Amino acid sequence: MRTLIAAAVVCLLLLKPAAMAAALSFEEAERTMLAANPQAAAARQNLETAKLRVSAARAGLYPSLSANASYSRSGSQGLPSWDSYSYGLSGTQPLFAPAVPAALRAAGASMRISQAAYSRTASALRYQLKSAFADIINSSETIKLSQETLKRRAENLELIRLKYQAGRENKAALLETEATLKTAQWQHEKYKKDLRLLERKLNRLLGRPARTPAPELEPVLPPEPPEEFSFFSQQLERHYSLLSARAALSAAEAAVDSAKSAMLPEASASGNYRWSGTDWPAAPNSWALGASVSLPLFSAGRLSSNLAASKTAWSSAEAELKNASDEVYLNAEDSFLTWREARAYMDVAKSSLDAAEARAWLVRKQYLAGQTSYFEWRNVEEQLINEENQYLAAGRSLIISHAAFAQAIGE
Fold this sequence. Notes:
Blueprint: H1 2-13, H2 26-36, H3 38-58, E1 64-74, E2 82-96, H4 99-165, H5 171-205, H6 233-236, H7 240-261, E3 266-277, E4 285-294, H8 302-368, H9 374-408
Antiparallel strand pairs: 1-2, 2-3, 3-4
């Protein structure tokens, strides 16, 4: 049993067996998930929409050209009818329009917010995917351990039955051992059910039909945590929450500029060339060139109120940026400490398992030799099974804690 548990955990945490070359790796699953998952697709489309709005806002800096045409046929009773038409071209070019650059900056900030939102969604999905990998691999190893436990429970029942038939054990011990075997059989079925539910969750993350058989998975291997959290300080500056908060501050600044521009004059140049007449195709033509300037004189306080509101929103965005910076740092440090704690607990779980295995081997020998009671042997067996499950759970917790830390630093 000791060899089985050691092999299971080594497979889970330390090695990449050659036999699993065809297994689905986390990197391949991640690419599949980001391409097929509905949440990732929605965030990607939102980002594309924001990019197109930047292009639309940038077009306001350039001249616009349009064509126009009209045709009508008129007449009166007793008189011949006549045609009238006109067609031409017209264009405008902004000369002084402060609102246009402000709108462009606002659109750019909105695009960066959408980029941060996509990164946030992708990070959350990566955490869910890594958790699914850890849960499925742990559940598979738990089922293997459960099979060994069933085998050992059945052997124990035969041993107790022989002792009972020989008059060396009581009926309570026999009945209790039978109940323990049936409980192990029930737990084994529960473990298989849990594994199927986890496989369905993985299929949903990968955008596959829920009833599709889950692929064999390659173990996710968490690295050793560094000694100091400061190693990740630069990476925190690129966290999607901070990028979103900075973009929101830029959008607030653009809103202030837009409110100020509403109080400034606007100027544009325009021109047109026009043909018109009543006899096609001969027609007189006309053209015009000009410029226009507009300046707001009275707005009943609307412009000043908008400016004050945008400045208040800008101050709020500054405070949100500071708060986001504090939250990102604190959450990342907490996750880092949890990761280190989970790694340290692996050593504790390994030591406890070694002690339980040695104790179980000794007490079993003593029980077979009649040197100890059934109850002591039973308790030691239960303790060994608990330690085996604890060791597998510690390996899962280590993977989950590293996944949570990766999400906390924005990966």
